[in-house]
Amino acid sequence: MWDAGQLVRGSVVRFLRARNQQGYDIYLLPYAEQCNAGYILIDLDHATADVLPRMRANGHEPCVVLQSSPGHLQAWIRVSTTPLEPALATAISKRLARTYGGDLASTDGYHLGRLAGFTNQKLQRRTARGYAPWVKIVEARAAIARAAPELLHLATQLIAQQSAAVRDTTYCLPRVGNPSTTITAHGAARIYQSWTERWRIRERFPQPDWSIIDLWLARKLLAMHVSTIQVETILRLGSPNFPRHHGAPEDYLRRTLARAALPPLRPVCSTHTTAPLLPRDATDSDGSNPRAGR
Fold this sequence. Notes:
This protein has helices spanning 4-7, 10-21, 51-57, 86-100, 148-170, 185-198, 201-204, 210-223, 228-238, 249-260; strands spanning 27-28, 39-44, 64-69, 72-78, 113-114, 136-140. With 294 residues, it is an alpha+beta fold. It has a 4-stranded antiparallel beta sheet. A two-stranded antiparallel sheet has the order 1-5. Helix 4 (86-100) crosses helix 5, helix 5 (148-170) packs antiparallel against helix 6 (185-198) and helix 8 packs across helix 10 (249-260).
């Protein structure tokens, strides 16, 4: 982690420039520990000429606009002076992306933006002469979006509605000590799908590893005191295309439930450790990175 003063030091700039020349992309994220720092990133991969005027007219004026490559913009919109819960930041980001044609795959509350002054190393962004384009500042202003209170209010309402919908899919499940109620294949699929939608699995992972999702869901349901028998049934009947490639599906389910019952491992932290890789609702340990490149 660097503060603004450290980031402009010659030694730091030389370090980042050298890695950029080696083919690495340089990203940044305003830091607020486990929360969003109050800044929402909108990735405008196919920006229209009127997008910035529309954002200003709607009170969603960005504090920073970058040109990540010709015809492609990234906009940071500040909506709060205090940190936000990740789910709230994600809901705001998704709403803004839909309004302005942003990339919905880049709407999680921890998404990284490019750092101006370095090159975009994506091969498809190369110029006709084969050069990587520079990431440039289009505009910058220290201000909070005028419509920030409305965005926060609408996102809070949406999260409450989603939470109620998820509870509706699990309220009827028997708790430990009453595992006899039968779960139908339709019911299991509905429960499984409700959690994958809440975690935005399809948006974040183009080719999900369903074995990992099985573990996340098993861990979540056990934490909600759903019985082991019921969790096993939900995975067997609800996990996409189960048993997939598993040669011994019953043994796979047994091992998944055994692992889910264990406390999640915590990675050793350092200044170079990547951010937590899981949906926040699942756990804080295992998973794969949905937020950025190298």
